[in-house]
Every structure is written in C-alpha cells, then in structure tokens.
Design a protein that fits this description.
By secondary structure, this protein is α+β, with helices and mostly antiparallel strands. It has one domain: Peptide Deformylase (Alpha-Beta Complex). Helices cover about 30% and strands about 25% of the residues. The strands form two sheets. The chain has a five-stranded antiparallel beta sheet with strand order 1-2-3-6-7. The structure holds ligand K1U and zinc ion (ZN). The site of ligand K1U has 16 residues, from strand 1 and helix 2.
C-alpha cells in the first residue's frame, strides 16, 4: 500500500476533467486500496482520483468512524436530484477551510463497483452531499468555486502563507 500526495488548491491539475475507467483489473484494485489509505490518513470521508492526480472517474468514501463503511464509485452518474441542502463542507485539497455549499438533498445515482458491476441507488444526507462534492472533483470543480471571489482570494492567501511556513 502507498500514501499518495493530495493536490492542493490552486493547483491547475485539479481542473482536469476525469475520463471513464475502462479496465477493472489488479492495477485498479491497488489504486483503490492506496486511495483508501490516503483518505484515512488525511483524515477524510471521501477522495476523488483527481485529487491524487489520476484523472479517471474513481471515488472512494467511508462515512463511518470505525472505517467499516468503505464505498467505491466508478464512472458515477447522477440520474435525478431533489430538494436543497446547504451544509458546511471541507476538502482535503483545500485544507482547513470549511464553508456552506448549496447541494441537492436527495439524488438518484448509478455507478460501477470495483468489479465493473452497475449499481443504482437513491442517496440522501451526508452520502448524497459527499458524492456531489466528489463528482465535482471529477469535473475539475472545487467547493470554493461556489464561494465569492473575495473569499477565494482570502483562501489562496491563507494556504500560500501556510505552505511558505511549512517549507521555511
Ligand atoms: O473530497 C474531499 O476533499 C474529502 C472531503 C469530503 C467532504 C466532506 C464534507 C462535505 C463534503 C465532502 C473531506 O473528507 S473533508 C474532511 C472531513 O470532512 C472529515 C475529516 C475527518 C473526520 C470527519 C470528517
Ligand atoms: Zn474535496
């Protein structure tokens, strides 16, 4: 297993559009394991492949505290959206920043699992919010894109300052 580097805002590679996953092989299974290890170490509840600079439609998620709820979403599609839920979100690519983002409250989605089998389910609560956040990553979109330009400027400055003090 390997800990992978998570790209940080405003890295332009985070804007790359992810391509579909086509090979459901041992290499993909290893990447999924590495992404779970990286997400747990961060720590986070979700991670999109775009964040580790692999631009394919792969997401891992675990909303449990005891790491018992591993979920893998490959080539996900949202079929329908209902309601609205504006909640506070964080992002491992924008460390230490939390803000409200407007999301659909319930979604119906389909995706492939690690064996390539199609799954379809209605999702709500944090699972629905997290999947929308991670699917934005696959589209090259970040939660800060929903905020004002002034907030984004402040966030860029804060993260720059933190990076400079880390490397000093
Ligand atoms: O995509 C990411 O960067 C992961 C992100 C997912 C997410 C969180 C909240 C709302 C929407 C999407 C995170 O995991 S941020 C960290 C976090 O939420 C968390 C960390 C430790 C324990 C519990 C939560
Ligand atoms: Zn994120």
């Amino acid at each position: 297993m390997a800990l992978l580097t998570i790209l940080e805002y405003p890295d332009p590679r985070l804007r790359t559009k992810a391509r579909p996953v086509t090979a459901f092989d041992a290499e993909l299974r290893q990447r999924i394991e590495d992404m779970f290890e990286t997400m747990y170490a961060a720590p986070g509840i979700g991670l999109a492949a775009s964040q580790i600079d692999w631009h394919h439609q792969l997401i891992v998620m675990d909303l449990t505290e005891d790491r018992s709820g591993r979920q893998v979403f490959i080539n996900p599609e949202i079929l329908s959206k209902e309601g609205s839920a504006a909640g506070e979100e964080g992002c491992l690519s924008v460390p230490g920043i939390y803000d409200d983002v407007p999301r659909a409250e319930r979604i119906s989605a389909r995706w492939q699992d690690a064996d390539g089998q199609w799954q379809q389910q209605s999702l709500d609560g944090l699972l629905a919010v997290c999947l929308q956040h991670e699917m934005d990553h696959l589209d090259g979109k970040l939660f800060v894109d929903y905020l004002s330009e002034l907030k984004r400027q402040r966030i860029r400055k804060k993260l720059d300052k933190e990076r400079r003090s880390r490397t000093a």
